[in-house]
Every structure is written in structure tokens, then in C-alpha cells.
User: Which sequence fits this backbone?
């Protein structure tokens, strides 16, 4: 029986999100008894067009996109979507960038469908509609190209029970850190997490977390890490005590995973912690249950005024307290800062540089970033981040002391490129801007829509 190829562009930057999406999809296809109708092909942006050309048949092209990827690979991404469409492919994209800019994803990048937000259920629903030759355009959480312009459904489903979503895809060898928390209640204005996953956090149960950790051990992976937007925020049973729950999780992991040779890492990438969660009581309990001897703390600024405008929910003093507590319990500390934040004044810059020096004196190291106006956040249309001349001089001196690092120069360039694409309407973001593009530009919508429908028919025919 001929199988329908699903060509998955799986670069390093988005392998975690694809592991979760494909883990759910493979499980769904097996439960529905239709897994045998598909074959999965993993590739990269560098090889995608060659892989597609070699197929010679209908297929689905699946991509997960970060905004930084789009900026760095704009022409390659658009070319891949065009080649796929021309050779009978149905092209779909999800992830942070399509969630923040679904209109630009279909009108500018050339994808047939953009999936918004948590796409595990909606993408599985779309595949099910292809198998059953049902109404493809009623799939929740999608924006699609049509002969009239765009057809949108923003009522995307959210995963209520995180245990229902595998944290990785064993069948395809995409083995991720274990996602234990999804969504973030803080909704910091520069961050895509809350606006993609919502402000109501959901947690993986202790039992599920331990089970998947054991699966990683059986695969020869000893270092067990967790994905969480707030590493010490964990409350799967709604007990009202997040710190007690995280200790309970680590105690169980200690008995059932570390005893089998596993090494447990929490509070470091990709499970950085917020400063107000770093307490003597918690670190006293955690220190003997984790293998990492460093933790990452998100400060983002040393200016209380900026922290308030960003909705961070903590003070600059909270960061200093957290560093002191962590050092007191024997942890090395890496502290994240974002430079060039919107509305940053000379006084704010001076406050942040002074704060950085205080953290260093307390024994911390500094990790510097630059603000980027990411689609889908409240600061989508803010100016790109720029590191002031004074900050560059101070940072350069600190780098020489070996206590500060980061890719701020590269990120400053990326921020400018994002803003240029946004200002030239290559990144569209809003409905009003999409309507402006459709009214002012002669896009080949009829041709695109006709090609999409024809390729859908070919895919459906192949699945019969």
C-alpha cells in the first residue's frame, strides 16, 4: 500500500515543539488505526527542497517556525513552500511565528495553512479530515489561503490535561526534555509563551513525568531535563503549594529515576526560574535532589520601572535576594537580562548596569539578550532593541572578566531585521494590516487557492 509522505522540517531550533506535536499525532493515528497510511520523513531547511523533489508524489509539508528562523531563512522557507506546492504538496506551518503572524505565514511565506497556538489536537483533526475526505476548512485554530483572501478560525483548542500529550516522539527518535508546565500566568509583554499557550498553566502529573523519564533511560538518555516557563512553579494537584509539589516530584524522581542512574536537572535551561520562587526553604530541599549545581534566574532588567511596564511581577531587589539565596545553598547562578527594552531611558540603562554589577559581586554570572519585537506579543510593533553605546562599553569590560556572555550583537541585528520585515508588511501580524495587503497588492490568490484545493484532492485520493 502506498503511504502518504509527511515531510517534517526538523531543525535544532524547533525540535522540541515538533517532538511533542508528532508524539501526539503518532499516538492519535495509531488509536484511529490509520498510522499505516503515512510515512514520516525528517529533513532540514537545507535539504527540504531536494527531499520534496525526490518524492515525485503528493505529500504534506509540515514546518514549525520561530520568528528568528523566518528572518534568517526567509527566502529558503518561501522557496520550500513554493516547490512543495508545485509538486503536489499541502503546506502547513505552526509554532510561535505562525501563531503570532498567521496572515503573513499564508500570504507572504506561501503556506496553505497556518496553525495557531497549541496545535496537537487541531493538526490531528486536520489529518483525520483528510482521511475521511471531510470539511478541511472547519478545523479549529487555522488560517488558510482562499480565492477571496484568507479564511480564519481562531477558536483553537487548548490541551486541558498535559498527561494526554506525550513530551516527545519515540517512534521518530525525537527525544525531548519533559514538558511539565504549559502556559504562564505572568504574560510578560515581550514573551510569546502566554499569548500562544494561555495564562492558565497546566501541569504534567508526577506519575506521567516519572514514566517518561524511565522511557528516556531505556533509550540510553541519562540526563533528564524539564521544559517549563517557570522551573519552580509546579502545582499538578492544585494543592496551593507549588514549592511542596516540586519537592514531591523531585523526591519521587530521586527514588525511581536517579536510583536507576538518571541525572536530574531542574532550574536550568530549559526550565529557568523566576526570582521570587527562589527561597531558602525550597533550595534547602532541592539541592540534594538535582544534579545541576547552577540555576538560571530571569531578571530581564535592573529597573523597577521597566519591570513594572513589562508586567514581570517581581522587583530588582527580588533578583538580588534570589542570587544570594542560591549562592548560600551552593548553587552557581546565571542571570538573564534583556537590553534595549521599549521605553528604556538612560536612567533605566544605568540602573540595569548597576544591578548587573551587584549580581556579579554576589557571585552570579550574566547572560545578556536584546529585545526583539516578536509577533503575537503586546510589543509586536515596538522599535527593535538597541544596546546603547554606554552599555556596550560596560558590557565589553565585563566580558573580559569572564562573568558575562551572550549573543547580543547577533540579536540586535535580528531585532532590526524583524522590524524591517514588519514595517515592509512581510510580517503582517494584524487583521487590519492583512486587509491592507489584500486591498493594495495583486496577490495570485485564485491561483494559490486553486492549487491548494487540487493538491488537497490529490492527498485525499492517495489516502483512500
Assistant:
Amino acid at each position: 500500500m502506498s503511504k502518504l509522505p509527511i515531510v517534517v522540517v526538523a531543525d535544532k531550533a524547533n525540535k522540541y515543539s515538533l517532538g511533542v506535536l508528532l508524539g501526539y499525532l503518532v499516538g492519535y493515528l495509531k488509536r484511529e488505526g490509520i498510522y499505516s497510511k503515512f510515512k514520516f520523513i525528517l529533513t532540514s531547511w537545507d535539504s527540504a527542497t531536494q527531499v520534496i523533489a525526490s518524492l515525485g508524489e503528493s505529500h504534506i509539508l509540515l514546518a514549525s517556525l520561530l520568528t528568528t528562523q523566518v528572518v534568517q531563512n526567509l527566502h529558503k522557507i518561501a522557496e520550500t513552500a513554493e516547490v512543495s506546492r508545485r509538486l503536489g504538496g499541502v503546506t502547513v506551518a505552526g509554532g510561535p511565528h505562525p501563531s503570532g503572524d498567521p496572515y503573513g505565514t499564508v500570504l507572504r511565506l506561501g503556506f496553505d495553512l497556518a496553525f495557531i497556538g497549541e496545535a496537537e489536537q487541531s493538526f490531528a483533526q486536520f489529518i483525520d479530515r483528510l482521511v475521511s475526505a471531510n470539511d478541511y476548512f472547519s478545523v479549529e485554530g487555522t488560517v488558510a489561503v482562499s480565492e477571496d483572501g484568507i479564511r480564519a478560525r481562531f477558536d483553537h483548542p487548548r490541551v486541558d490535561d498535559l498527561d494526554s500529550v506525550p513530551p516527545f516522539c519515540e517512534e521518530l527518535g525525537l527525544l525531548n526534555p519533559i514538558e511539565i508546565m504549559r502556559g504562564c500566568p505572568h504574560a510578560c509583554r515581550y514573551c510569546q509563551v502566554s499569548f500562544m499557550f494561555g495564562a492558565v498553566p497546566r501541569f504534567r502529573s508526577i506519575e506521567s513525568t516519572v514514566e517518561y523519564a524511565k522511557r528516556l533511560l531505556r533509550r540510553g538518555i541519562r540526563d533528564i531535563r524539564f521544559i517549563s516557563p517557570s522551573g519552580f512553579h509546579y502545582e499538578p494537584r492544585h494543592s496551593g503549594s507549588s514549592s511542596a509539589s516540586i519537592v514531591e516530584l523531585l523526591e519521587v524522581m530521586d527514588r525511581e529515576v536517579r536510583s536507576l542512574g538518571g541525572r536530574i536537572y531542574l532550574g536550568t535551561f530549559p526550565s529557568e526560574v523566576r526570582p521570587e520562587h527562589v527561597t531558602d526553604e525550597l533550595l534547602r530541599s532541592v539541592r540534594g535532589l538535582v544534579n545541576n549545581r547552577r540555576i538560571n534566574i530571569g531578571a530581564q532588567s535592573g529597573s523597577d520601572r521597566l519591570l513594572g511596564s513589562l508586567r514581570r511581577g517581581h522587583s530588582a531587589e527580588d533578583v538580588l535576594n534570589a542570587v544570594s539565596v542560591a549562592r548560600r545553598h551552593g548553587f552557581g547562578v546565571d542571570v538573564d537580562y534583556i537590553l534595549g527594552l521599549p521605553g528604556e531611558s538612560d536612567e533605566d540603562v544605568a540602573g540595569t548596569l548597576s544591578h548587573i554589577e551587584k549580581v556579579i559581586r554576589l557571585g552570579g554570572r550574566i547572560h545578556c539578550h536584546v529585545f526583539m519585537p516578536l509577533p503575537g506579543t503586546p510589543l509586536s510593533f515596538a522599535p527593535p532593541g538597541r544596546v546603547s553605546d554606554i552599555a556596550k562599553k560596560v558590557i565589553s569590560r565585563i566580558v573580559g572578566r569572564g562573568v558575562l556572555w551572550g549573543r547580543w550583537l547577533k540579536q540586535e541585528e535580528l531585532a532590526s531585521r524583524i522590524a524591517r520585515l514588519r514595517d515592509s508588511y512581510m510580517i503582517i501580524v494584524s487583521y487590519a494590516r492583512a486587509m491592507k495587503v489584500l486591498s493594495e497588492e495583486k496577490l495570485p490568490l485564485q491561483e494559490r487557492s486553486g492549487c491548494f484545493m487540487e493538491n488537497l484532492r490529490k492527498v485525499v485520493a492517495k489516502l483512500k
Observations:
- The mean pLDDT is 94.
- Residues 248 and 417 are 45 Å apart (CA to CA).
- The domain at 177-423 is CATH 3.80.30.20 (pyruvate-formate lyase- activating enzyme).
- The chain has two domains: 4-158+441-463, 177-423.
